[in-house]
Every structure is written in structure tokens, then in C-alpha cells.
Amino acid sequence: MKGRGGHRAFFAFCIALFLASRLAAQDATFVASVDRNPVGIGEQFTLVFTLNNGGMGGGKNLQLPDLSKFHVMAGPNQSSSMQFINGAVSSSVTYSFILQPKEMGKFTIGTASIEAAGKVVKTSPLVLDVVKAAAKPKTQARAPDDVSAQIGDNLFLRATVDRTHVVQGEQINLVFKVYTRVSVTNYAVEKTPTFTGFWGEDVETPKNIALTTETVNGKQYRVGIIRRVALFPTQSGLLEISPMELQTTVQVQSPRSNDPFDSFFRDPFGRNVNYPVKSDPIKIKVDPLPPGAPDDFKGAVGQLAMSTSVDKKTTRTNEPISLKVTISGTGNIKLLESPAVDLPADFEQYTPKVSDAINRQADRISGSKTFEYLLIPRYPGLKVIKPVTFSYYDLAKKDYVRLRSPQIEMNVEQGAAPALPLIAGSLREDVKLLSQDIRFIKVVVPSFSKKGESLHGSGVFVGLMLLPLAGLVGAFVYARRRQTAMLDQVAYRNRRAIRVAQKGLKQAEYLLKEKAGAKGSPSSNQRLRFYSEVSRALWKYLGDKLNIPQAEFSIDGATTELSCRSVEPGLLQALRSLLESCDMARFAPSSLDVSSMQKAYDEAKRIIVELERTLK
Amino acid sequence: MTTKRIIVSWVLLLSFACVAFGQSPEQMFERANSLYQQGKAAEARDLYESIVQNGFVSSDVYYNLGNAHYKTGNIARAILNYERARRLMPSDEDLRHNLQLANLLITDRIETAPRLFVWDYWEGLKDMFSTRTVTWLAYLVFVALVVLVALVILARTYRLRKAGFLASAATGLALIALLVVLSAKIADDRRTDEAIVLATITTVKNSPDSKSSDAFVLHAGVKVQIIDSVSDWVKIRLADGKVGWMEKTAAETI
Predict the structure, then answer these.
(1) Of A22, A253, A349, A562, whose CB neighbour count within 10 A is largest?
(2) pLDDT value for A397
(3) Cβ contact (<8 Å) for A465 and B97?
(4) Chain B: nearest CA to A464, how far in angstroms?
(5) How remote is the C-alpha of A139 from its chain's centroid?
(6) Residue-wise over A512-538: b if at least 16 C-beta within 10 A, else e?
(7) For the segment A535-562, what is each residue's pLDDT rounded down to a tens digit?
(8) Cα–Cα distance for residue pair A150/A185, rounded to 1 Å
(9) What domains can you pick out in chain A, each with its CATH number?
(10) Strand pairing partners for B123?
């Protein structure tokens, strides 16, 4: 029963819907809209496409325009609504996007199309203006117009400087003051000013703002100093101090109205509204420092004095001394750079310890900066630290001033560890060149050569190269000649041998004939001469023939030499026996008679002829 | 007619120049030295320069010219002349000192690309003596070799001949080694691919075109190696291996 009723109700609803859609199909519209126009760059806006009377299910085939000129932050989000008003049904479907423009300019959002109830409907193009970031995104924080009218010139922030035309490095006092005739309950710095081109030093202001009164344009204001800055320009030219912005909370009276309820609920003390105030930018003309700065000028400007001191005048080697250089006065003390200290070469120096004491209370920033140099003398003796110089630009004199400390002399005595660093390898110092300079020129006049000429390519050198070669050739030729000469000698002796032998034998023959002629037995002396003559002739012949000096000769040596030269052994045997018989005859001459002498002579003759034939 | 006049005027000009600059390079050298000692480095520089311009060359002239350039503040030209002197007297201690000092004063610091230690030994060996000295050394060894060979030829006994042969073989090896060093040194002397940047500042490009992108910037005094050239541009390589193109006029070869 119950289920049946539910079914029926659903059915009726469906019919109603169908009817509604039939009805709506007649005038379906598609509209594009944005929530604001113009839009600031960087701001988000909502683009909505609305389909009216398109039917409950919305449309099909939604074709979107090109949105590439924007960042799509969210979307598309679809929502639909349906209204029954006095029996008339209206429905709408929205497609929304949250977009953010990428750049400034005028943009056209093209047509979007959708199919609804069998028809294609289109939006008309939309022109969107993207402008520079809008005045204030936080619109709700802005005071209502009536409030700003009420506050008007009763509250403003003013930046003042004590001078607008300075030289580089000269102090400028910048003060931000709030002028008010309304009650300011609170304030917060929205935007701090920037001091591009300046060195800014905040001057202390009391925690609780002490109010004074000042009259501006006939109106009396209470004045409070918000911030006080001492500025030192670090560059020349026209510099600008950007404005400061404050967000103040001001108590205002609500506007009167005739509504009794309103006045009933009105705060008896007024209500608080936020009200922004902003100072004007200030232009400062900064002149550069005049030319002619000393070498050691490092940008100090003001009125300064310098003092130097050492903690002790006498010290021992390796015991540190502290040298203090104090610069004091008014000016950009904080920016002072350490003056250069020229030390004797054998001092060890460390980077200075810097401390400053700055008084920011007064109109001009003043104080002192102390540079403490730690020096360690390494060698004994009287040491002199040259005067420390420091230059600054004096604002009163309008010129550069060079300060010069007195020269510091100190006596360094030999310390406890005498010359130890020289022995210890790790501590040993390199020989420090006190000043680096090039070596002196060459003074001895050199031998010049022509450009492009070289020793190895010169004719003289080629000649010198050829000289030993010529000597070598000479040596070779000489060696060759000597050898041929030697060979010639051998041949000569060889040729001469037979003649010499024959001459020797002729002498022997003469001796033999003499004996035979005398018919007597030859004397032993004659026999001895005969044999020695035969022996000599033989030896001489062998010596010449075999090219051996006679002194180195023996019977055995001669026979072996001859046998090497293929002399037949029978002949050798004969030669041997003949030589032996000659030797024997020389030692025992009486044992031989004329016939044996004749025999020996013939034998010698025969052997020589035979040898001559063989040794040819 | 006109050529004759030109010749006559040239002869006159040359003779005048001879009179003006002193007759011999030796006299000019001494004059320049005394000017240098008086502190007139610029005048001494011009006089040394004219010796070189006249075609007379000596390691000492280049060295002194380098010193004069150094004193007049032209470090790049000082380096150029020291490098030229170094070719002629590689082992001179004064020269090494001055060149090192001059190189400390130039703007660019270029790390040498690491290489095998053998190359350093080889460079050291080459730098030990000048080309002239090596030439004479090689000549002496050559003469010794010839004498020993002659000994081998003329020796009567075997022992003498053997000793002579061994000695000449050793001398021959020494001669070959010296000739290798000498030929390397001669090749080095003929090198025209080393140059010193003389322009105060040069932008080295990535290609030989003034519109090309910048590769790096060089300052005066840097030694570069020229590896290629196209019309008015040369391709250079630095000691650390960087390569680029720069205008030919910005550097002068050693």
C-alpha cells in the first residue's frame, strides 16, 4: 500500500519534469558572465556560463571558448537549480570557472556553445579588461566613504628630512611623523620605506610615542614620531626615499541616523575603523665628493680624529703587542674601513679586531671605531712602525683631511726561545722578498747574429762538418795504401827469393870449386864457410818465400809452414836432412869431405828448384 | 727616372738612419744600456727595438728589451720579448725570474692542464742548453766519433781495434741522442704557433665572426697557441685547453 503510493508520486514527478522540460525547451538561453570587469592583474575572477531552461539534465556537448590567456584556478564546476513559481517552472544550470589573468590588456572570451533540448545555443563574446593591480583587494578593510570624509586631513603621515642637498657620505636625518586630530588607537607599519643608495641607521625612538603639538595650516595637530633614521648616501645622483605606509585604527563617530534602533545600538565611544596613511616620497640630491682624494681615502666623511697607541714600548720576540687605532668623531663611523698599517717585514700581523661605540641619540651620529691589530715580532731589534695615515672628507672645511699618527718605535728584545722558528721546519719562514723587481739588464755586449740565421744552417758549420769526414776519408785511403804496400813487399821478397838463394849458392859453389882446384883436403875453416853459406842461402830463401823474419825461424816451424802450402813430404824430408847436415857440419866440420860438400850443394840446388816450382 | 729618385732617397734615408742610430749594433747596445741605467727606459727601449728592427738578434737584446718594456709598464710586450729571449737562452736564471714576475702581473690566471710527467722531463732536457750549445755539443761528439772510426781503420792490433769499435758505438749512440734533442729544438725555434696577447682586452669568440657568441675574455700578456687561422681570425688554445677564435691583430707571435 505504502510502496504503491511512493511509486505513484515518483511517476507524477517525472511527468511534471517532462512537462517542464517541454515547456522550457521553447526558450533555452545560454549566457556568459564574469563577476567583475575590469579585473586587476593577479586577481581571481569567476567566469560563469548559465544555461536557462535547458532542462534538468543540463546540456550536452559543452564547447568552451579558448581560455589560454588565463590561469584556470578551478572549474568547471556545475550546479543546477530549479524553481517552481506560481506553477511556472524555471531551471538553470551553471558552469563556473575561477580564472586569473596572465597579462594586462583587453581580452575577448569567445562564444561557448551547448546542446540543450536538441538545439545548439551559444553565448555572445565577452570583453574583459585586465588592468594594473586594483587599488585594494581588501575592499572590506577600506573605510567607508563617510569615514574617510570624517577623517580627511585630520590624519596624515609625513616624512621630513633636515636637508635635501648633500654630498656623498653626509648625514641626513629622516623623520616619519604622524599628524592627527582624531584618536588613533593603534597602528601597524604596512610597508617600510626603502633607502636605495643609502646606508640607513635607525635612531632610537622612545617606545611610547610622546606626543607633541604642532600647528599646520591653522589646525592644531598632535604629532607622534614613528621612526627616525640617519641616512648616509653611498652613491651620488638624485636618490629617492620611497614612502612609508601605515595601517591605523581610528575611532570614529558613526554617522547619525534617524533610526532610533540604530542610535540605540550605537557604540557610545564611537567605533574602530582601519584607515591607511601614506607619506610622500622624498627626493634627495647627492653631489659626488670633489676630485683630488688622497690615495688612502676610503670613503670616510664627517669630522674625525685619530689616535694610535701600543700597549707596550718594549717587548720580547714572539710576544704579541697590540696596536690600537681609534677613529672618533661625527660621520658615518660604522662604515669606516681599517687604515693600512705598514709594519716591518719580520712582524706577523693578524686581521684587526674591530669594535665600535656609536651614539645615536644626538642630532648627528657620532662615536668611535677602534681597530686593534695584534702584532708578533719575530726578531729582536729596534723596530719602527711607520705613521698610520687616515684620510676623510671634512664637511666643515669642504676638503679632504689627512690624519697622520706619530711614528711608533719599539724595542724588541730576544725572547726565551731564541731563533727557534728557524730550526723547526714547520715554522720556518720562506725568504720574504721585501720588494719584487725584475733583475738587471745584461751589460756585456753579446755577439749578434742576423735574424733567421742559425749555426747549424751556416756554411761555416757545413764546412766544419765536412772537415772530419775528409780526415776520415784520408785515414781510409792511408790504411788502404799501407795494406797494398805490405802486400807488395811480400810479392817482392817472393820474386827476389830465388835470386838471393842463387847468389848464396854461387858463393858456396865458388868455395867448392876453390877446394876442387887446390886438390887438397879443404881446411875446416873453408868447410865451415861453405856449409854456413848453403844454410844461409836456404834459410834466406825460405824466409823470403814464406814472408817470415829469419830470427823467428826453426826447422820444425819451417817444415810445418811448408807442409801447409802442400809441399810434398819427400822434399820436406830432404830439406830437413840437408839443414840438419849443414848444422852438424858447422859444429863438426872435419867429418865431411869434398864429395859430401858437392852432394850438399847439389841437394840444396835441387831443393830450391823444387820448392820454387811448388810455391810459385 | 722616378725609380732612380726613389732609390737615391732610400739610400740617403738609410745612411741617415745609420748615422742617427750609431753604426754597429754593439755601439747601439751599449748606448741603450747606459740609457737604461740612467732610468730612461723608454729611450733605451726604442734603441733596443731598432737593433732588432735592423735584423740583429741576440738573447741579451731581447732580454734587455723585455726589461725596458717592463719598466715602461708594458707587461705584455715584456713577456713577448722574454719569451723570444727564452728561445735563445732557455736556462738563464735572470730571464726565468723576470718572466715569472711579469707573468704574475697579468690579469688572467690560467691553470695549466695536467699532463704526463715525462713531458716535463723532456721540456727540462730541451731547456737545459740553447740550440747553439747543443749544436756545438753534437759537433764535438761527431768529431770524436770520426776520430774513433779512424782509429778502428788504422789500428794495427786486434785489441786496439776492438776498443775503438766499442767506443765508437757508444759515441754513435750519444750522437743520435743529441741529434734527436737538436732536431726537436730546431723545430721549436721554427715554431710560429705561439703568441702573446697584446690587446688590453680581447673577447674570444666561438667562431671566426664578430657576431658570434663570446667564448671568454682575455687580457694582455697571456700566452696562447695558434692552431688555425681564417682570414683575419686565428683559432687559439690556452694552456688549460680552452679554444676560441680571436682577431689576428690582438696577438703577436713569439
Answers:
(1) A562
(2) 86
(3) no
(4) 8
(5) 55
(6) beebeeeeeebeeebbbbbbbbbbbbb
(7) 888 888 888 777 777 666 777 777 787 8
(8) 16
(9) 2-131 (2.60.40.10), 139-286 (2.60.40), 300-423 (2.60.40.740), 487-615 (1.20.120)
(10) none
- Measured between CB atoms, which of B25, B64, B97 is closest to A442? B64
Chain A CB contacts of B142 below 8 Å: 465, 468
Q: Rounded to whole angstroms, how far apart are CA atoms A178 and A246?
A: 9
User: Do the Cβ atoms of A455 and B131 come within 8 Å?
Assistant: yes
SS (H, E, C) A216-258: ECCEEEEEEEEEEEEEEECCCEEEEECCCEEEEEEEECCCCCC
Size of interface A-B (CB pairs under 8 A): 89
B4 band by pLDDT with thresholds 50, 70 and 90 = low
- Give the residue on A whose Cα is nearest the Cα of B85: A442
A465 to chain B: which residues are within 8 Å by CB?
Answer: 139, 142
Q: Which residues contact A127 (CB under 8 A, 6 or more apart)?
A: A106, A107, A108, A109
Mean pLDDT calculated for residue range A472-483? 89
Chain A residues close to B135, C-beta within 8 Å:
455-456, 461
Q: Which neighbouring-strand residues pair with A308?
A: A325
B102–A438 CB contact, under 8 Å = yes
Q: What was the pLDDT predicted at B146?
A: 92
Q: Select from B251, B253, B241 the least CA-distant residue to B112.
A: B241
Most A CBs within 10 Å: which of B101, B134, B183, B253, as the mutation test of the A interface?
B101
Question: Which value, in Å, is the radius of gyration of the alpha carbons in chain B?
Answer: 24
Gyration radius of chain A's alpha carbons = 68
What's the whole-number average pLDDT of chain B? 85
* Mean local confidence (pLDDT), B223-248: 89
Q: State the smallest CA–CA distance between residue A476 and chain B in angstroms.
A: 7
Whole-prediction pTM: 0.41
| Cβ–Cβ gap B142/A461 under 8 Å | no
